[in-house]
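This part of the workshop introduces the protein records we will be handling. Each record describes a single protein and holds just a pair of labelled lines. Instead of coordinates, the fold is spelled out as a row of discrete tokens. To make this concrete, we reproduce a full record directly below:
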Amino acid sequence: MSSYTISKSLNPKRVFILQKSELEKRLDPFFYVPELLELEKKVLAKKPKKLRDYIVSVSSGATPKTTESELYYAEKENGIPFLRVQNLSPTGVLEFDDCKYINKETHNGMLKRSQVSAGDLLVKITGVGRMAIASIAPEGFIGNINQHVCVIKTGSKEISETLAAFLNSDIGEKLASRRSAGGTRPALDYPALLSIPIIEDKRILKITNKVIAQKQKNEAETEKLLSSIDEYLLKELGIKLPEPPENTLKNRMFTRTLKEIANKRIDPFFHQNKFIENLKVIGNGKYPVKTLREIIIGNLIKGSLPKQEEKDGECSVVQINSINADGTISLDDLLTSKNIFSKSQKLIKEDVLVVITGATIGKVAFWNYPGEYFLGGDIVKFQTNPLADNAFVYHFLRSGIMQIEIKRNITGATNGHLAHEDIAHLPIPVPPIDKQKEIANHITEIRNKAQQLKDKTKEVLKIASEEIEEILLN
């Protein structure tokens, strides 16, 4: 082997030679990337413990069948938090956006072994993107997890916080990723996870706590900005929300005549008083109301989901997991496929996207990104005709009052479905076009300010990561 050389024109981080004596149990090239090997040597020189040395117990959860949601799932008000990868964060603080909930019977029965309590360490063990993201269950917390997360009981919140601070560092992430396997969907099995070397240093916890404080401050300001949007929007449209009725059995009971339910769904959920009242207040605003069908060009355009043999091609595909809760779109780690798309499925400026099925059903996004991308499965898109402004319709669909209406039209419970016909019938107030643009521009400005605060948080995280690396390795 010593007689072989590698051309200097090749990237030595991607193309390298190993002696047979340097091979360990694994044979995949990623495990031996020089950068990762060098990092591991530096860490091992600090004589660290392994993650297993801190663990009392470890277990992962499962995902109950969504097709039998009534048996396993519940509403937030009377359910147990069911944590998934998206609820973990690199600050170590759990985030409850898009959190699912299970009922107590599932928590204490089917998922009893994966119950989460205060001080537990939660770690991502499966999925694309950053590996081993870790968060801590807060005081008084009771919850559960799916199979892509594991719960580690350390016996001490302080130990869990110290471990999370290390695992969330760039060093911890690289050590974890090196041990992952699985190609398109990387995973850490227990032996790999527990073999991660841990450098225990209280200084990195102090840095992490400073980041958390700054993040929480930025998030409070962001929440204040975003919560002002609905108030402004409804005021401009002359829509006045009624006082919510007292939550009593009497107020939850209602009757409907055959005439009222003719040619409509007959399930009680669809005909609840809150939905009827919601439609009334939209119609009582100061501007005429049209259906979405009347203000869009042509029909809703549905995306395509590439088959397995069609993947790994020249087309970048926006999927449902690319759409964030705030209406933005993540363009990292996109699926690529062969060109199976029609001309109409190519995303163009000011497309409005709506997720029609899956865990993120009902999310609405606005396409305003450079480059060539295509619409993936379980999403529809549209453009408005001269009666309406794309950005105005996007902002209105994201409002609380319209999310209630969208939720009303979902069929199939937890992972339900939005039919094209139901989306086409959504009510949209139509002010004069200049007024629509004024409203859209004002809301866009608010959202841009909120995004700037989020970007500040990312910058703080980046600086903290550099400080932690300096402490741990030098």
Q: What stands out?
A: Residues 433-473 form the longest helix (41 residues). The mean pLDDT is 90.
